[in-house]
Amino acid sequence: QVELVESGGGLVQAGGSLRLACEASGSIFGIAGMGWYRQAPGKQRELVARVTSGGVRNYADSVKGRFTISTISRDGAKSEVYLQMNSLKSEDTAVYYCNAWWSPFDNYWGQGTQVTVSS
To answer: What was the pLDDT predicted at 75?
Structure first.
């Protein structure tokens, strides 16, 4: 079993910054990557950024140059992923979900953390 615990959401003014954190614990051996998705009201969940265990990073076009994803693995027992969000815009307002995957059919989700950007 894998547990993902997120933190760092909140309310920020447009142009400000937030840093999201997610800790994966449990049976994480062989993890292929971790990432962040978001879902705004009335919209589908979308990829924000992800990083593979080999260090390959992908970003949504809408966040390139503003968001940075990074990860830390601690002795195979825990893995952490961070999302540094700068120059936030009102359209970044959403619930952000941490995701960890081992294959396209084997992945876990966090409970979500709200990010609200006021204009």
So the answer is: 67
